[in-house]
Amino acid sequence: MNRHPLFPESARGFTFLEVLIAIVCIGMVVTGLGAAVVAALRYPTLNRETLQATFIAQEAMDWIVADRRQLGTLPPVGGDCSAVLSGFTLLSGFTCAIDPVAGCPATGSCQLTVTVTMPSGGVVTATWVAVR
After folding, report:
1. CB atoms within 10 A of CB 115
2. Is 122:50 a contact under the CB 8 Å cutoff?
3. Which range, of 27-31, 72-76, 124-128, averages the lowest pLDDT?
4. CB of 109 within 8 A of CB of 131?
5. With DSSP H G I counted as helix, E B as strand and the rest as coil, what are the percentages for the chain, rounded to 5?
6. What does the alpha-carbon distance between residue 54 and residue 91 come to, in Å, rounded to a whole number?
7. Structural domain of residue 107, as residue ranges?
8. In angstroms, rounded to a whole number, what is the distance separating the alpha carbons of residues 86 and 68?
9. Does pTM surpass 0.70?
10. Which of 116 and 101 is assigned the larger pLDDT?
11. Is residue 101 domain-resident?
């Protein structure tokens, strides 16, 4: 016996609960994809900052090594890279520091580390060891 001529018993549809669960599942998938897209858009900025910071650290280290070869000793360098990178302007938000601040002793070994901090808070270091 059919209750309604347009909707026979054999034609079943979805219940409200099934539709609700499907909507929640689709919403979760869309939210996850949205978060993945936002993260993917953020990484090129971090990669660009890392590349720029690596270039700054390498440039500072190259100047220090060139000064050592020219002068025969490592000159005392300040805590920041301004003395080493004269004529080189750091990009906005980047900071550069050299450790140790006093330079290297005349004898023995010495390790210099150039640390560049990126605007996002990440850090890139370049280390050079001199043995005399």
Report:
1. 18
2. yes
3. 72-76
4. yes
5. 40, 20, 40
6. 12
7. 16-131
8. 16
9. no
10. 116
11. yes
Cα angle, residue 114 at apex, residues 111 and 119 outer, rounded to 5°: 155
Indicate if the pLDDT at residue 31 is higher than 90.
yes
In a domain, 7, yes or no: no
Please give the torsion angle defined by the CA atoms of residues 74, 127, 84 and 59, in that order, rounded to the nearest 10 degrees: 130
- C-alpha–C-alpha distance, residues 83 and 50, integer Å: 23
Asked if the structure places residue 10 within a domain, the reply is no
User: What pLDDT is recorded for position 126?
Assistant: 83
Count structural domains, the chain. 1
Q: Is the pLDDT of residue 6 over 80?
A: no
Considering Cα of 26, then 28, then 32, then 37, what sign does the dihedral take? Answer: positive
* Residue 40 tokens, joined: 């993917």
**Domain assignment of residue 4, yes or no:** no
- For 53-90, the pLDDT digits (tens) are 888 888 888 877 777 777 666 655 556 776 667 666 77
